[in-house]
């Protein structure tokens, strides 16, 4: 009799323990979202906050958030590489920058991934599955955001511009410093990530710098299916090309100009391109310039500040010429290798060009936008520097009735290893 009662109690206990592992609507309120305090914000607290909002929207329950350095709770949803052993076990798997994996282990739901985009995508599914009662005791899934459109536009935004220096490291083997860091900066590794950057935002026009023919071929094969093409392909290479989505805009006129004299052109890599476009949705015309100004400092090569100012003046003059022809909004983006206090940028500011980050009526990212990424390795550098100290610039000129809505500096972790310039995105109501 005693053995029978004991057996029943054991069975009941085991049954309770199994049921406790399932994450149900009743047990959800007892869970805490835990993030890595040592992670960058977008893979740490911001990912946790995103998951918190997604769960609240889907389930009507607002979970508490805490860092992994605080005392562990009985039931936790771990997001990112936390200090919990379950997270360490998940990250024994090597994740690509866009991959994610989710698994319920005991009373901990582990959400792991290669970066912020992957963690957010996984979080969205977790919230949806919670709302649908689909998180049983064997809950597990994996996936990737590669090839997905991730950032829809605000309703009235009808023009999106992407600007990015790509860091030309073409036809070179992976440097020893990168090998030691367990990373790879060859074009074949970086190109798919640039392609996903384009796919994630789906810009109408793109202004590149340091974009080699080798990188062009690799990226183009992944994004041509979405309608992207280059405005003009010269003999040799256009280091500052413009790409556009022929599904959304029509190319009217384009030109590529290399700066002269060669002394200030760095092997012909310094110059600019422009494209005149007609928006297929509303028929409005706009112009995009992308440029890369001379790169050395005045201390390294005397006359460098004046050279950049002269190059900026050439662009300003060309903008005036096109304004007289088309009288439409003109956007100038690029790596200008100097800050707002310099002669080069004053050339734009003193002639009526407005920084897009200042003109944005919605979100405006305050970050500087530049970090270390070269043959000697890479490192994220946010510091306390502001947009006024940036060397990558985005201007609007002759704005007419256009409105800059958002200025975004894309700093997800994967961008640290693909170029030394965080990409900029501008959302416009044209």
Structural summary, described in words:
This protein has helices at 2-21, 45-59, 85-90, 116-131, 176-180, 187-201, 213-223, 304-326, 343-349, 356-359; strands at residues 32-35, 64-67, 76-79, 99-105, 108-113, 140-144, 159-165, 205-209, 228-230, 242-245, 249-258, 271-279, 285-292, 330-335, 354-355, 372-374, 377-379, 392-397, 403-409, 424-429. By secondary structure, the protein is an alpha+beta fold. The chain is built from ten helices and 20 strands. Residues 1-20 have low confidence and may be disordered. The protein has a six-stranded mixed sheet with strand order 2-1-3-5-4-6. A six-stranded mixed sheet has the order 9-10-8-7-20-19. Strands 11-12-13-14-18-15 form a six-stranded mixed sheet. The N and C termini lie far apart (82 Å). It is globular, with a radius of gyration of 25 Å.
List the helices and strands and how they pair.
Blueprint: H1 2-21, E1 32-35, H2 45-59, E2 64-67, E3 76-79, H3 85-90, E4 99-105, E5 108-113, H4 116-131, E6 140-144, E7 159-165, H5 176-180, H6 187-201, E8 205-209, H7 213-223, E9 228-230, E10 242-245, E11 249-258, E12 271-279, E13 285-292, H8 304-326, E14 330-335, H9 343-349, E15 354-355, H10 356-359, E16 372-374, E17 377-379, E18 392-397, E19 403-409, E20 424-429
Parallel strand pairs: 1-2, 1-3, 3-5, 7-8, 13-14
Antiparallel strand pairs: 4-5, 4-6, 7-20, 8-10, 9-10, 11-12, 12-13, 14-18, 15-18, 16-17, 19-20
Helix pairs in contact: 2-4, 6-7, 8-9
């Amino acid at each position: 009799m005693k053995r029978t009662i004991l057996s029943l109690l054991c069975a009941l206990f085991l049954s309770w323990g199994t049921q406790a592992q399932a994450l149900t609507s009743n047990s959800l309120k007892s869970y805490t979202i835990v993030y890595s305090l040592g992670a960058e914000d977008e893979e740490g607290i911001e990912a946790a906050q995103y998951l918190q909002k997604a769960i609240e929207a889907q389930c009507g329950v607002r979970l508490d958030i805490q860092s992994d350095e605080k005392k562990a709770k009985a039931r936790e949803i771990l997001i990112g590489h936390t200090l919990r052993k379950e997270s360490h076990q998940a990250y024994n798997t090597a994740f690509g920058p866009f991959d994610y994996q989710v698994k319920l282990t005991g009373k901990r739901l582990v959400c792991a991934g290669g970066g912020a985009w992957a963690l957010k995508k996984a979080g969205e599914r977790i919230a949806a599955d919670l709302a649908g009662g689909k998180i049983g005791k064997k809950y597990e899934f994996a996936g990737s955001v590669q090839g997905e459109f991730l950032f829809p536009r605000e309703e009235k935004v009808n023009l999106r511009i992407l600007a990015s220096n790509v860091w030309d490291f073409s036809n070179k083997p992976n440097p020893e410093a990168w090998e030691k860091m367990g990373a790879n900066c060859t074009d074949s590794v970086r190109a798919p990530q640039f392609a996903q950057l384009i796919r994630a935002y789906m810009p109408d026009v793109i202004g590149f710098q340091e974009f080699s023919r080798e990188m062009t071929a690799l990226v183009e094969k992944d994004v041509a299916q979405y309608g992207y093409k280059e405005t003009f392909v010269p003999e040799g290479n256009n280091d500052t090309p413009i790409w556009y989505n022929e599904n959304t805009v029509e190319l009217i006129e384009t030109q590529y100009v290399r700066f002269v004299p060669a002394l200030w052109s760095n092997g012909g890599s310094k110059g600019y391109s422009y494209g005149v476009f007609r928006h297929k949705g509303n028929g409005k015309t706009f112009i995009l310039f992308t440029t890369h100004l001379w790169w050395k400092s005045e201390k390294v090569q005397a006359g460098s500040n004046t050279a950049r100012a002269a190059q900026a003046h050439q662009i300003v003059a060309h903008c005036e010429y096109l304004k007289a022809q088309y009288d439409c909004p003109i956007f100038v983006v690029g790596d200008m290798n100097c800050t707002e206090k310099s002669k080069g940028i004053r050339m734009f500011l003193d002639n009526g060009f407005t920084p897009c980050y200042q003109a944005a009526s919605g979100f405006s990212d305050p970050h500087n936008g530049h970090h270390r990424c070269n043959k000697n390795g890479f490192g994220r550098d946010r510091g306390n520097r502001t947009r006024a100290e940036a060397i990558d610039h985005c201007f609007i000129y002759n704005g007419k009735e256009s409105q800059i809505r958002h200025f975004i500096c894309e700093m997800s972790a994967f961008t640290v290893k693909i170029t030394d310039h965080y990409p900029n995105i501008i959302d416009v109501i044209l």
